[in-house]
Amino acid sequence: xxxxxxxxxxxxxxxxxxxxxxxxxxxxxxxxxxxxxxxxxxxxxxxxxxxxxxxxxxxxxxxxxxxxxxxxxxxxxxxxxxxxxxxxxxxxxxxxxxxxxxxxxxxxxxxxxxxxxxxxxxxxxxxxxxxxxxxxxxxxxxxxxxxxxxxxxxxxxxxxxxxxxxxxxxxxxxxxxxxxxxxxxxxxxxxxxxxxxxxxxxxxxxxxxxxxxxxxxxxxxxxxx
Length: 225
Fold this sequence. Notes:
This protein has 225 residues and is α/β, with parallel strands linked by helices. It folds into two domains: 1-33; 36-215, Zn-dependent exopeptidases (Aminopeptidase, 3-Layer(aba) Sandwich), CATH 3.40.630. The protein has seven helices and six strands, in the order αβαβαββαβαβαα. The protein has helices spanning 2-33, 62-79, 96-105, 134-151, 165-169, 185-191, 197-215; strands spanning 40-45, 83-86, 110-117, 127-131, 156-161, 174-181. Strands 2-1-3-6-4-5 form a six-stranded mixed sheet.
């Protein structure tokens, strides 16, 4: 009986050691491989409520596409250990004040305002990055935008200044990305084909841009210049 108990105790201790080692290794690996771990990121799905954004893609107003992409991006970021806040989680109307106030109140370390461009020219397409304050936002915008350019397979429309209250009054590095033209015939087809693949591609590129940003030496968390 004593021998049997001793063997069982040894097995229990061995199993406990294996589980502890596995947990420790997983935690260590996560900490070592995800620069997003513990980062506070704010996602701002453009438009909402009475503000539809572009309606050039039949059946899919911009406000719905931006929320879909934001939710997908949120899952990707949380899988890497980030803490993620959305300025809207439904079809509610949000003012610029609502958006930047939320971002500042949660001590966000980065803000991405997600948009899809629109035009009456259904052939026009491209990806455009917008920043508010040069010192606070430009480098961040360039970093995120570079991933959209390299991964979405559409023309680069560059990075330029845009006096958005969301960008100007958010106290963390902030960017507005006009990711694709929702009014483009091909983009509209991709976004409405029911697979969600294009939305996921956009979310993944934004995720990769944030990963690139937080892989660099970290700037101050809050800056107003």
